[in-house]
Description:
Blueprint: H1 15-26, H2 30-42, H3 45-72, H4 79-87, H5 89-104, H6 106-121, H7 129-145, H8 148-175, H9 193-210, H10 226-255, H11 258-261, H12 267-276, H13 280-312, H14 330-346, H15 350-354, H16 356-377, H17 392-411, H18 413-436
Helix pairs in contact: 1-8, 1-10, 1-13, 2-9, 3-9, 3-10, 3-16, 3-17, 4-5, 4-16, 5-13, 5-16, 6-7, 6-13, 6-14, 7-14, 8-10, 8-13, 9-17, 12-13, 13-14, 16-17, 17-18
Membrane topology: Multi-pass membrane protein
InterPro entries: AA/rel_permease1, AminoAcid_Transporter
GO cellular component, one term: membrane
Amino acid sequence: MTDSRQNQLKKSLGLSFNIAVLIGGTIGVGILRTPGTIAGMLNNYWLIIASWLFGGLFVLIGANSYAELATMLPKAGGSYNYIKRAFGDYAGFLSGWFDYITNAIPPAFYCIVISEYLIILFPDLANYSTVMAISLLLAFVLLHLTGVKNGSAIQQITSLLKVFCFVALVIACFMYSGVAIPAIKTDNSFFQIGLLFGFFKSLQLIIGTYNGWNSACFFAEENNDPGKNIPKSLYSGVLLVVAIYVLLNIAFFHVLPIETLAKSNLAAADVANIIFGKNGAIIVTVISIFSLISILNAFMMIPPRILYGLSRDGFFIERGTTVNKGGTPIVALLVSSLFSLFLICIGSFEVLFSFAAFTSIIVWGLAYCSLLKLRTTEPNLPRPYRSLWYPWTTIIAIIASIALLTGFIYSDPKSFGIIVGITIVSYPLFWVLRRRK
Length: 437
């Protein structure tokens, strides 16, 4: 048996880390790529901006509910703790593993993408892409093995650099006035099937770029004052991310007309090439690397916390709760890193990433439902923070989640089929683990 006192996480994280991990875990290269794709789908300036604002409003309303849940049950692993408390072990088991898979895929992907961006800067390294990706993964594993404080420091530094880079890019776009932008053709056929399909596909992409907004909740158990720090970090972090995303889209449209941007696979690079000339691609590559290092660091820390929580509840091996002197759940980190190493070696992410938005919406929706349930069944639970305008904001979040999930099923039935398959397989596995426990 492991010593429960020895294997407790340390309360060594504060407000600045919470905001840093939210920003670091949310803003990636998605915002540099997706504006062009979304412009191609919607082809309407106001509808595009409204879609980004809608995604931001959705996560802001979600943050309002999560602020109460995370301060009421400040435990490692985030969402699944609330779902398990409200709806029982199986709901907790399924949502916990959905959440784990969603958060355990990105580290491998980010290691590979960083190595690809390094090759753009240093072409002589072209034959060493996989080696660099594995080396990067090992470097971050070693960093986090030294303890939570070092990981926290790196997160705060890289997140700050990331914000500076994106703000600088926005300012550069608005200062540019070298091209007369033609009038944007509006499309009034919103209710046509094609545009409706494009709208939901766009929202799927947008929700994907906002994914990570609840990162601070995974570290609630390690926070020195979760009752105050988590609500502050959720609201301030989400508002900052929404502002950056919306301003970047407006800034890109200031430089390029919508018809041109719609044909871009990497919108930020095309915009930067116009503003900075031949050095534009290099500037965007450097911004991308800073952005990816920050998000990689965040996602090296998140999956082990989920696995630690699952292990503590008997949904993974008992040794998954082992914590080293630096406060790192060491076995959970090593298992997650081996999974990342496996993904780097096979290098196939398309199918895995396609259902990430699905699983996120399902887990968030169940978490919102758990808030309603726990308010009714456990009204006396200590609640340092209470959701604003409850229950209406939580009900709106649930309705929005159902609407988005319905839209995602309509636009991507294959990913939904994968999720149904995983759910069916998970039930017998749950009972095996339960009997062993």
